[in-house]
Amino acid sequence: MIETVSHSTHYSNATAQGGGASVERDQVQQGAASAAAVKSDLVGGGDTEHFTQSLEAAAVIQQMKQRDQEVRTHEQAHLAAGGSYVQGSASYTYQQGPDGQRYAVGGEVGIDTAAVAGDPQATIQKAETVMRAALAPSEPSAQDMAVASAAGQMITTARIEFSRMQQEEGGEPEGKKVSSQQPIASIHHNRDQEEGVVVLQPEVGAYREFSRPNGDRVSTQEAVSLFT
Description:
Blueprint: E1 8-11, H1 23-41, H2 47-82, E2 86-96, E3 102-112, H3 120-134, H4 142-170, H5 184-195, E4 199-203, E5 206-211, E6 217-219, H6 220-225
Antiparallel strand pairs: 1-3, 2-3, 4-5, 5-6
């Protein structure tokens, strides 16, 4: 699950249902309660009953071990993908099994999701990392998906801001811009006259050939190479 706290986000693999408890956690808790009841009944039971109850307890323990591994793998995926934006280590919610051991049934990983002030490019890179971290587990929770969606929106907003900044800072006055469709003569006209290297012979619509002062003809490509 990922919950936004200030600029921190928390990942968890417990998917909220109804009143907020996950279905998987309910199943584990019910199993643990059942196993605890089995454990208390062992004192007065016969050998057959004891054997049956022991099998039930063993099944519950196995389920809790599997759940513990799933939770830890899920949170470690968030940690590995979150990089420097991860805040602290994973935190876990535990349930005691019939064997007295504590097993993880839920977990959280905090990650910084604040935009980088005044730097949309850095914000985009950061949001991409947050998105990768949210979707890193093989089965992202509903909250993980929500954080990934928010990161995607952050990327869109930052790209718009970056485009706006480029237009404000990098644009030349319209009259000074040179179109690639303009004749080469208009681009290099002054330099041609000053250096006397090439005298351009204009034709209608474009400049096809050029003449040197001695009368030799050169192509457009050859003429351009003279200026480089």
